[in-house]
Amino acid sequence: MKGLLAILLVGILAFANPAVPNNYTTSVKTGGEVEAKYIKTGSYEVKYFEEKTTENFKKYEVYYPKDLETTNTKYPVVVFVNGSGVKGSRYKALFRHLASWGFIVLGNEDESSWAGASTDKTLTYIINKNKDKNSIFYNKIDTNNIGASGHSQGGAGIFNAITTNEHSSMYKTAVALSPAHEELSNGLKWTYDLTKVKIPILMIAGTKGDFETQTVIPLEAMIKMYDKLNVQKVMMRKIDIEHGQMLYEADGYVTAWFMWRLKNDSYAGSAFKGQNAEIFNNNLYQDVKSNILN
Fold it and tell me: Is the pLDDT of residue 70 over 80?
């Protein structure tokens, strides 16, 4: 894929990633008890902090539980990898939702995130704040529990964020939503190597629309990606959901995944763990595969 075609595809990817609806936590349909629990807003009041940077992604965006300011608790972190042309400031509802479950959630304004470089700089930013006695985040970061989530180009960027950057080894788990598949990514020079992944991966896509199912992540390509991952892994597709909607339509399970992997929430983990896990019995999803059967 070269020249004009590649440019057009980047533009289409950007167009296909709408802002997250503010009411999605009450409008998204769920098909399981775990999914239903974690699509709801959590119990933490959320605050927002931002800081400008000279980097081309302009600013760091931090959503965090308000309790952080008055307790000595350390909080797990999730860094978001943006889709094509979609700045973190368009993810506000998504970030607030995850922060309401007790996470520090990081974003930026990068519109071309595939290499994971801006993700690494954003993680570096919060690590430095964790060491800064003048910061509200001083000694509040649980550096043993850091995750990443990305959609579309950002879904492909996830694989570079956790494998090829300075702080890649700090990530404990990641979620790839409708990631641009390998051949497409190679054509757009968003190359990544799935054989380098060393942490558990949740990969989710939709089943609606040619753009999602034929261009970005065809089922056959998704299965091929799943098979290459030599880690604990889950793949699934949400029925009748288009590419842009995948940014938030599966957020009940995305939140549950991070609650399990980063906060040791066994109930959240029951959605994914075992041969009778909820994901195998949720009629809103199909093409479910997992190797987490014990």
Answer: yes
What's the total number of domains in the chain?
1
Beta-bridge partner residues of 285: 238
Range of the domain at 119: 3-290
Is residue 103 within 8 A of residue 172, CB to CB? The reply is: no
Q: How far apart are CA 208 and CA 242, in angstroms?
A: 5
User: Which element (helix H / strand E) includes 119?
Assistant: helix 117-131
CATH (domain of 89)? 3.40.50.1820
Token pair for residue 27? 């409008």
Q: What is the pTM of this model?
A: 0.93
Task: Band the pLDDT of 19: cuts 50, 70, 90.
Answer: low
Q: pLDDT tens digits for 183-214?
A: 999 998 899 999 999 999 999 999 999 999 99
Helix (H, G, I), strand (E, B) or coil at 206: strand
Separation between Cα atoms, residue 263 and residue 67, nearest integer Å = 16
